[in-house]
Amino acid sequence: MGDIVTVVSAALSVLGAIVAGVMTTWSARRNAMFEYRLAAERHEATKAEQAQEVISRYREPLLLAAFNLQSRLHNAVGGTYLAEYLNHEDEDERRYARDYTVYVLADYLCWVEIIRRDLRFLDLGDEDSNRTFNRHLTSVGAAFSSLKLPGTHFRLFKGQQRAIGELLIESANGRADSMTYPVFCARLDQSLEFRRWFRRLLDDVAEIVTHDRTGNERLLRAQHALIDLIDFLDPARTRLPDDRAKLDETVPPGQPQDAQAAPATL
To answer: Residues annotated as region Disordered (predicted)?
Structure first.
């Protein structure tokens, strides 16, 4: 009888040890899975925070560049500024009308390229605001690159957009910045290689005034996409003037092209 009790006790001890081992292993595995999920969630949150930090850092310069470009496009397509000043008797006025139109486009592309470089190692993840921001940038770029829109003036494919943006990047206090307009003009005069990238765009400015809004649909689409980007970056309309009219796609018969109020920024 004593032998049976001893055997049973030993068996129960072994069984208890097995159960304890299984429970310990299960508990350890459960804790490891929990820690993994927690780490993954923290990693996703960190990536989203990093992306938001980059967007916030460049919000103001990108917002200003987008506003200046849409304003120029609004005046170029919907107003009489280019038609008047491209043929002005003053050479400085003619040059400003042409060169600044190209500059505001290049300045915008520069800030997009700067942001793209900072974001290239970041996964924008599932944050709605990050994905929406990226979608707005894509919409502007697509307007300039589309083969489906009429005309070739101001058509820039994706690689050309990035190259032009890269050409304007300068370093200031250890951070990337965009070239100023005076420096841009000086580089056009002093560097044939630099000017080569902008020669067609400089010629394209005169093309704008030879077309109606249908012929300038590329610029119209770009201006609309820029307004959407501006509204996303400044939804409360506190950072920029509340002057964000989208160009009408068509002008009613008998109504002048410039009847719709254009932004005052030239």
So the answer is: 245-266
